[in-house]
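New to this. Help decode the following:
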Amino acid sequence: AQCLGFKDSPLRVIMKPKILVAGVLALDNLTTPRRSEEKIVGGAGVYSSISSSIFTNTALVAAIGNDFPENILHKIKEHGINIESVSELDYPTFHWSGEYKGDMSQAITHKTEFIINEHYNWEIKEEHRKTDVLLLCNNDPNIQLKVLEQVEAKTIAMDTMNLWIDIATDKLDLVVSQVNILFINDAEAQQYARCKNLNEAATILLAKGPQFVVIKKGEHGASLYSEHVTKHLTAFKVKDFVDPTGAGDSFAGAAMGYLSDKEINEENLTTAMNYGAAVASVTVEGFGTESIMTITKSEIESRFGKLIGGPGRI
């Protein structure tokens, strides 16, 4: 394995990262009602790290294979993301093949190839092991535990998916018990809590250990729950919905990037979720990572302003 750094890059001045994003980098075959392409860059690690880098200095831990496009790695670095904990291995990059149909509310997975993970131990550089925020992107709970064992963070957030709820509930419970914030979508919350009512599901999930549960509901916004708080926030109304891939990862990455130097409380989480909604709305207007790769802070501030009641409120 080869660890990748910034020695050959004159891009941004490197600052100590305030958030460490642990997430898969992938090459996807993706089909939507609008478009179909093969071997496009994806993975939660890309969406989440780029989103968090809008707000704070970000480091990424992941693996790429011998087929990962060098120009994409360059684009990631252009966002100021520290990739010293990204390892390049002589195996194919993680691959996902799937599609969205109809209203594109759920991804249909056809195939995954994760050979690279058999040869990657998610080892984190010493300088990234102490951080303000750790974001555990959706991944095998066993991998999330490997990361948790190495990192000391003031705030820990995580995401998950239906597969791990199905096949690794015990390990998932162990991860959830150690985090401050759980991000999860509505269908997964119902599945994990074994409860159809989302308010009741959130109560069950809070009992597993996190201080806050954020339930993502796509075009219907997101809901924030704690022992004392229930708050429902709207989504940004998108005019041209192209591809939902990465929306949830962008939402979580932006929210945690914003929170990296702030107290974790209801007020700051509400603001963070509105920023997350703004970033996610840009993500879904492009195919794959097209829109998020060229995202600007000014566009996010404009959409955030509309979400909180400024000119052009939705």
Q: What stands out?
A: Residues 5-13 have pLDDT under 50 and may be disordered.
